[in-house]
Design a protein that fits this description.
The protein is mostly helical. It has 2 domains: 166 residues, no CATH class; 33 residues, no CATH class. The protein is 56% helix and 0% strand. The longest helix is centred in the middle third of the chain and has 19 residues.
Length: 228
C-alpha cells in the first residue's frame, strides 16, 4: 500500500470515528433511513434488499461495467490490507448500488455522467479505462479529480464526483449493515465499534474502555419478530 493510500485510508477512518458516525445509521442520511422503512412495507421489497445485501454486489441500478469502476474506485479510496478490510471486503459497491436505486435516486444521472467523464479522462490520459489501470495510476487519477486537474469533466465537476464517492465509501464502510454495506461488520471491527447494542448501561456510555458486553449487533438483529 502506498503512502498516499495509507493517508487516504487513515483519513476515512479518522473522519468516521471523529464524527461519531459509526453508531447505528450514523453516516447514512435520514433519507436513506426513511427509504428503508418504506421498503419494509411489502415482503417483495424487503426480499429484494435482503438478496442484494448478500448477493453479487450490484444489479439494483449499476450495470456490470459501472459496477466494476465503482468497486475499483472505492477500493482505492479505502484500500484493503492484510488484516485490514477495504471497501471491497465491506461490500461498499452493494451499499452504493442499493442507495442509487432508493434514497439516492436523484444522484443516478450524477453517477452516470461522472463515470462517463472518468472513463473519458482515463482513456485520454492513459489510453485505458480506470479498471484497467494499475493501482499507482488509479491513485494518480483520483488525486487529479480531488485537485480539480482532471479534464473531461463538466457536470459533475471532478472534485464534486470525488467528494461524493468518498462520502458514499465512508457510508458503505461504517453505516449499519442493514443498508447493504459494512459486510460482516468489517468497518465496525476495523474501528472497534461494538455495534448498535440495545443494552448499553449509563456506565458503559461513560466508559472509555472497549465495550465487552457481547457480540456485534446491527439494526437487523433488533427488528421485532414478524407475527404470523
Amino acid at each position: 500500500m502506498s503512502k498516499h493510500d495509507e493517508a487516504r485510508r487513515a483519513f476515512l477512518i479518522g473522519a468516521a470515528v471523529g464524527a461519531g458516525a459509526v453508531a447505528g445509521k450514523g453516516l447514512v442520511p435520514e433519507a436513506l433511513a426513511q427509504t428503508h422503512e418504506q421498503h419494509k412495507a411489502t415482503d417483495a421489497q424487503a426480499t429484494t434488499a435482503q438478496s442484494h445485501a448478500h448477493g453479487s454486489g450490484h444489479g439494483a441500478f449499476l450495470n456490470d461495467d459501472d459496477a466494476a469502476t465503482v468497486e475499483a474506485f472505492t477500493e482505492r479510496l479505502m484500500p484493503g490490507a492484510p488484516g485490514k478490510p477495504g471497501a471491497r471486503d465491506a461490500g461498499v459497491l452493494n451499499y452504493i448500488d442499493l442507495a442509487l436505486s432508493g434514497a439516492y435516486q436523484d444522484l443516478q444521472d450524477f453517477y452516470r455522467r461522472g463515470l462517463t467523464s472518468l472513463d473519458a479522462y482515463c482513456r485520454k490520459t492513459y489510453n485505458a479505462s480506470f479498471v484497467k489501470l494499475d493501482a499507482p495510476r488509479q491513485g494518480e487519477v483520483i488525486m487529479a479529480l480531488e485537485q480539480n486537474k482532471a479534464t473531461e469533466f463538466t457536470w459533475p465537476s471532478a472534485p464534486a464526483f470525488f467528494n461524493t464517492m468518498r462520502t458514499h465509501t465512508m457510508e458503505g464502510m461504517f453505516a449499519d449493515p442493514i443498508y447493504g454495506g459494512n459486510k460482516d461488520f468489517a468497518g465496525w471491527r476495523l474501528v472497534g465499534f461494538p455495534g448498535a447494542h440495545p443494552a448499553f448501561t449509563p456506565a458503559d456510555m461513560q466508559s472509555k474502555e472497549a465495550f465487552a458486553g457481547g457480540a456485534l449487533i446491527g439494526l437487523q438483529a433488533q427488528a421485532p419478530a414478524r407475527r404470523t
